[in-house]
Amino acid sequence: MGSDPQFAKYPNLALAQDIFTLTNPSSSLGSRQASTKKLQDAISEHKMAPLYRHLAHPTEGLLNSSGEGSVLRPTASSRRANGASQASSGSKESVSIDFPWNEQLYERLKMENDTELETFAKEETDAAENAGDTEVQAAKGKRAEFWARVGDKDKALSSYEAVFEKTGVLGTKIDIVLAIVRVGLFFNDKMLVKKQVDRAKALVESGGDWDRRNRLKAYQGLHLLTTRSYNLAAPLLLDSLSTFTSYELCSYSSLVVYSVLAGSVSLKRVDFKSKVVDTPEVKAILGDGEDKLAALTGTTSAGPGASDEDMKDVSSATPTPAPTAVNLTTLGSTSDNVAEVETPVDFTPLAGLVRSLYVGNYQAFFLALAAVEESFLSQDRYLYEHRVWFVREMRLRGYQQLLQSYRIVSLKSMAKDFGVSVDFLDRDLAKFIAADRIPCTIDRVNGIIETNRPDDKNKQYTDVVKQGDALITKLQKYGQAVRLRGSERG
After folding, report:
1. What HEC string does 214-273 produce?
2. Per-residue pLDDT at 328
């Protein structure tokens, strides 16, 4: 078969974000109300009786705060202040919105589901009697998509597996596994997602086409993002920017956010410049004025490279990336998998984070970090769980970037650079120093920070001596064994 993906329409992961919005104490009242309307409209339009019961049942509903069942939602008590946005993180109150339960609506939806299932059963019977295996598989595929559409996780998985077992075409098998991955993402089943991503990798390696290889990159990157493996997710997500077609997984705007955040927290400075700061796809979204125009027209984009060679993790001058054009088919375009037009996203905080980190404007960096937490980390279902970790790691990155340029720096001067108090900086640095994340010591009496840079030459000398001693010991043992064997022959 061709490279056109199958089983890519359901489940609709945008609805999973709406469900998260309703349970998120950081979301605004307006966004909760909008998400409630979207869910209600989708449930009525797609006849989602199982999902409706899962969300709104009086005793078992996930979104019914008066229910007796367990409600899996982030709570206000889990929102810890984290330095960069301590004030903003505590400014919003949790507003409870019940998802109304209508027994008559549920029975009507269930009756319509039963009618649709009877139609599928007739199609399967007719195909088995009057057509071939291909038509039978197509009818079974409709049933699997039906269960994914209405939000019944268990039946969707079993139906997809039944289709998979009878399918011989590799491309279709990959599409089925990717559909199962999306079911796992919809219901936040990380173990299922991991297992199926590995399964898809094995199938792709056995002969998958170019398009499905690229789609799998986005799936892998998003899964790694949810498991806090940002260093592994960054290259996959950044590579997906220029070839992205997986609109069933997330919007292009969301992919840009995930890619930039993963790259910012995990890449070394030289890679951060070449793969994030100077990437045309990123500049086309985050850039302004001439930078955005240059990226869109495909002309070379040489960002400010001053002081790159002074950074310790840069071994040579940063090369200017070759001129490349932005994949305009992915910018603002739609496909069959896009259910609706993307909601406009304000990338100003994200652009400020990237710019201020790269140029070393640390006060602006902390402000941008707080804005990114409020606008992105606290509002996205994939980023919310690790938002505290991300903010902490970004603060660490800022500290490391400044300290590696100095032998001794004043506490007061550094606190002024970051726009924080000396006491806060002292406490925050102490945590990283105790965990061996920053090689420095704080002299609070004299008000200075002294970096303890490892001596590479002495370390290499010590390693050579240790390895030499180990080699001599092995040679001595070998010589003794040879002499013993010689004496035995004598």
Report:
1. HHHHHHHHHHHHHCCCHHHHHHHHHHHHHHCCCCCCCCHHHHHHHHHHHHHHHCCHHHHH
2. 40
